[in-house]
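Why does residue order matter? Because the sequence determines the fold. Keep that principle in mind as you read this record.
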Amino acid sequence: MKTTTMVKMGALALSLLASSVMAAVSPDEAAKLGSTLTPLGAEKAGNADGSIPEWTGGLKPDAAPVDANGFLGDPFPNDKPLFVITKANMEQYKDKLTPGQQAMFQRYPETYRIPVFPTRRTAAAPQAVYDAVKKSALTTESVNGGNGLKNFEQSRYVAFPIPKNGVEVVWNHETRYRGTNFDRIVAQATPQANGAYTMVQMRETSAFPQFMSDVSPEKGANYLFYVKQEVVAPARLAGTVVLIHETIDQVKEPRLAWSYNAGQRRVRRAPQIAYDGPGTAADGMRTADNSDMYNGAPDRYDWKLVGKKEMYIPYNNYRLQSPKLKYADIVKPGHINQDLTRYELHRVWVVEGTVKPSERHIYAKRTFFVDEDTWSIVEADHYDGRGQLWRVGEGYQALDYRQGASLYAAQALYDVIAGRYAVLGMSNESKHAPMYDQKQAMNDFTPAALRNAGIR
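Structure:
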């Protein structure tokens, strides 16, 4: 009897141990969300010298006037730069600059600059998102060595608001709140070294399972979003359409992708639209997983959490997305017009990804700098197989205060070796800003819908 009791007690202890290992965080730790931590998991307090202020709730939905076409006004129109970092004074600020930013100063010593503005902690999201994030902290677990998520469908946002390792921070970027179903026209350019470029315009339609009436929780459990991307200009590329069903655990169920070529009038499966496959209409200047600064399965890398740092990062870039600007005002030789950008001092999570010995990718190593307030990657350094810094990514973040979603006014990927770059996600010359709350159904994201979108 004594032996049986001890066996039962041992089994119970092992069961409890297993449960504690599998649990995301304890209820006591999750209780920090909304108290010492913001509801999304950032440190609520400011830094020691006050240059990073306390988070007090972020921007309200009516933070600034919105024009008739839905373009956001700048909540801080009277802010002036505190100082401007240039090649001449970069050593003074080096500890708060990424290796990529430092490389940009070396590559473009006369024109690259970083205007640093007062720090505004504008991050905000709907209460329903905050509630979901707290649920994520208590329920979401990683599976397949961190390459997939379990129980995430119960919350749908920010899988690990109190992260313990590098891959959890990567997942937070991928599962951050991006607003509701949306439709938008965006522009992309890949300038030559002399600044010459052809503008490519694309219509992007995205939907999320939780906002689609005909997708049940069971059917959408392993799906993060659906996106359809159609090239609408120039004429020689128009009619090319890509469709993606983005899965959560891509090891268990790989991303589903199709492409429609207007010239061939055929829909084909497109497994190359992932990892280091070429980005759409990007002239080889970016990979498929460079979109949104990073996307897709994290399984090809070992992710190391370096820690948290204070750094100058692109933030509150409302001026850069103004409809008063033309694309020619933004796209310049070597890099975008830095006089239109805004950087602020914020805390970021630093994560290093190194390609696993059993895997391959053209980026042997990549370092992400992730804004603690929004979980958006705002800086990304990419290294080649020789360990040389190759491409530098910058995400010019701006909160859509109507949606409570942190998005990018534009994204750029700079090749510091070739002296070229890609800039994508611009909407300045579009007829309207991104439109949210769109009614989307699965019929809009099938291969048949892909063919219909590409007919011209």
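Confidence is low (pLDDT under 50) at residues 1-23.
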